[in-house]
Write a structure and sequence with these properties.
Shape: globular
CATH topology of the largest domain: tt1808, chain A
Number of domains: 2
CATH class of the largest domain: Alpha Beta
Strand content: 15-25%
CATH architecture of the largest domain: Alpha-Beta Complex
Helix content: 25-40%
Number of strands: 14
Number of helices: 9
Strand order of the largest sheet: 5-7-9-10-11-12
Largest sheet: 6 strands, mixed
Order of helices and strands: HHHHEEHHEEHEEEEEHEEHEEE
CATH superfamily of the largest domain: tt1808, chain A
Structural class: alpha+beta
Length: about 260
């Protein structure tokens, strides 16, 4: 379904974005992003909820000689463009590194020595703080899986993440839902993946704090989604970067030997 059709139906019902958010169960911020076009690839779960809240009648799918309920259109349409699922993800050969985002695979190269060096150095800061402050949250590293949207079409592997809700890892296989804190170390082969696609997904899913560490540019981009939406703060590798999740903790990037 096109966004314009959704907007037209909303106008017909004289429904505000706030009312649509309340009825669909989708956050107002996410509804605003979807309807404005800021979110280019909204999750199927959010779209299904919004469409259901608008009480569309049954209709004929364009190009298909069948009448279906509008609530099922997202699944029916996406099937024609080969939407992969978590079952496909787990069926990949073990030597293939990939993430699944909204039903599409994004293949990843092996991490570089620099990537692993920075990840190891960062882990020391966080592990030491959690240990000495009796932190209740847990630190995890890739290739730990995250079922970010709690659906069958997205499975990510953040480079580093902190999870504070133990129920999200009770299944023993993956994090079910959004981690509280995520760090991604930019891959030179595909920086847009971390800066744009993942940033949007993490924001929409409810990640509180997201750091993008760029070794080539020696820059850290910090999103505090929990308090200021999508406005980032930029730091360099000479700065001390405060951790919003842990007041009092600062990561001194000048101590990371590149």
């Amino acid at each position: 379904m096109q966004i314009e059709q959704i907007k037209a139906r909303k106008k017909q019902l004289k429904m505000t974005n706030a009312q649509l958010a309340e009825k669909s169960g989708v956050s107002l911020g996410t509804v605003n992003k979807i309807l404005s076009g800021a979110t280019r690839n909204p999750s199927s779960a959010n779209m299904d909820a919004i469409i259901a809240a608008l009480d569309f009648p049954s209709y004929k799918l364009e190009g298909l000689d069948t009448t279906v309920s509008v609530v099922r259109e997202t699944s029916a349409f996406n099937a024609t463009v080969c939407r992969y699922t978590i079952d496909d993800y787990y069926a990949l050969p073990q030597d293939i590194r990939a993430e699944l985002i909204d039903g599409q695979f994004y293949y990843m190269s092996s991490p570089s020595i620099m990537h692993q060096h920075i990840l190891r150095e960062l882990s020391y800061f966080f592990t030491d703080y959690i240990k000495h402050n009796h932190g209740k949250c847990s630190l995890y590293f890739a290739p730990c899986d995250v079922r970010l949207d709690k659906d069958d079409y997205t499975m990510l592997q953040p480079d580093m993440m902190i999870i504070c809700d133990p129920e999200k890892t009770q299944n023993g296989r993956y994090c079910d839902g959004a981690p509280d804190f995520i760090i991604e170390i930019v891959s030179p082969s595909n920086p847009a993946h971390d800066y744009y696609k993942k940033s949007e997904k993490y924001w929409a899913a409810g990640v509180q704090e997201y750091w993008i560490v760029d070794p080539q540019k020696e820059k850290i981009t910090v999103y505090l989604f929990a308090i200021n939406d999508t406005i980032p703060t930029l730091y360099t590798f000479k700065d001390k970067v405060p951790v919003q999740l842990y007041p009092g903790l600062e990561i001194d990037f000048s101590k990371i030997n590149l």
